[in-house]
């Protein structure tokens, strides 16, 4: 047990550690890759866009002074996931840290949500995260240490209009991590759930082209991706279970669960939620 804890603590320094990041071609995943590289990690990024992946991998190699790798991957294809993980094992080595950062969103009212969009969010945000976590957790349990970082969302803890399916997938990650954490803790594996508020990336340009959703949120809730990445890596190798960014949102989540009726009233006022304005 002491040896496993010592190995887990060794992840506080990412130097020469193998870090696999899905969704690594842009947004939060790219910021996490850059910061891991600055800390000396051997970064492995996966996503569907090969051109963007190549640029990220080259930048990581410059930042870290170590090899970096990139693999094209559709995280919703379990066979492709299996192939890429096997390739990484042979070409790079055992994974020390897994970051599930791939995610999609579609911010519209539940009654207007298309089935294809609902299915895609569940497949990418939740099922892919669970499957990758499952596969890599087994390897980490065998090696006696590791860290799994799953990017959930503040939306999974505090509901907001027009994010029903997206929020459900992120809430699913929170609960999945709570159980996975119990199952792997005795093997020296950390499971860290990250719940950021809105991050200043291209995510909302695709999830909400109208700009209505982001416009309703206070500026104080919006986070720079570099800030988030630094905070994530600062908590790896520790006993940290979950981080909420900004930190004060922990209190907001607690209050909402304690008095949900009041929370619903406040959130609807914050979003100026009226059916005619949101064009239900």
UniProtKB/TrEMBL annotation:
<dbReference type="GO" id="GO:0016020">
    <property type="term" value="C:membrane"/>
</dbReference>
<protein>
    <submittedName>
        <fullName>Short-chain dehydrogenase oxidoreductase</fullName>
    </submittedName>
</protein>
<dbReference type="Pfam" id="PF00106">
    <property type="entry name" value="adh_short"/>
</dbReference>
<dbReference type="InterPro" id="IPR002347">
    <property type="entry name" value="SDR_fam"/>
</dbReference>
<keyword id="KW-0560">Oxidoreductase</keyword>
<dbReference type="GO" id="GO:0016491">
    <property type="term" value="F:oxidoreductase activity"/>
</dbReference>
<comment type="similarity">
    <text>Belongs to the short-chain dehydrogenases/reductases (SDR) family.</text>
</comment>
<dbReference type="InterPro" id="IPR036291">
    <property type="entry name" value="NAD(P)-bd_dom_sf"/>
</dbReference>
């Amino acid at each position: 047990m002491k040896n496993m804890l010592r190995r887990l603590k060794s992840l506080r320094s990412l130097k020469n550690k193998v870090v696999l990041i899905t969704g690594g071609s842009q947004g939060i995943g790219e910021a996490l890759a850059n910061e891991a590289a600055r800390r000396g990690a051997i970064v492995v990024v996966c996503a569907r866009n090969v051109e963007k992946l190549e640029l990220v991998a080259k930048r990581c190699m410059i930042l870290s002074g170590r090899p970096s790798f990139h693999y094209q991957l559709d995280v919703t294809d379990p066979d492709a996931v299996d192939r890429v993980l096997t390739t990484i094992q042979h070409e790079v080595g055992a994974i020390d840290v897994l970051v599930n950062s791939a995610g999609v969103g579609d911010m519209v009212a539940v009654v207007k949500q298309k089935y294809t969009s609902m299915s895609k969010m569940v497949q990418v945000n939740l099922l892919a995260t669970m499957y990758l976590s499952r596969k890599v957790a087994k390897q980490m349990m065998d090696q006696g240490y590791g860290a799994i970082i799953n990017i959930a969302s503040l939306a999974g803890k505090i509901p907001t209009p027009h994010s029903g399916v997206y929020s459900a997938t992120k809430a699913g990650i929170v609960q999945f991590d709570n159980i996975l954490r119990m199952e792997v803790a005795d093997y020296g594996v950390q499971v860290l759930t990250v719940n950021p508020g809105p991050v200043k990336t291209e995510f909302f340009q695709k999830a909400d082209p109208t700009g209505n959703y982001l416009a309703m949120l206070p500026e104080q809730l919006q986070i720079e991706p570099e800030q988030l990445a630094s905070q994530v890596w600062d908590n790896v190798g520790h006993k940290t279970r979950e981080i909420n960014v900004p930190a004060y949102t922990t209190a907001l989540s607690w209050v909402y669960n304690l008095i949900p009726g009041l929370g619903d009233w406040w959130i609807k006022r914050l979003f100026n939620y009226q059916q005619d304005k949101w064009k239900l």
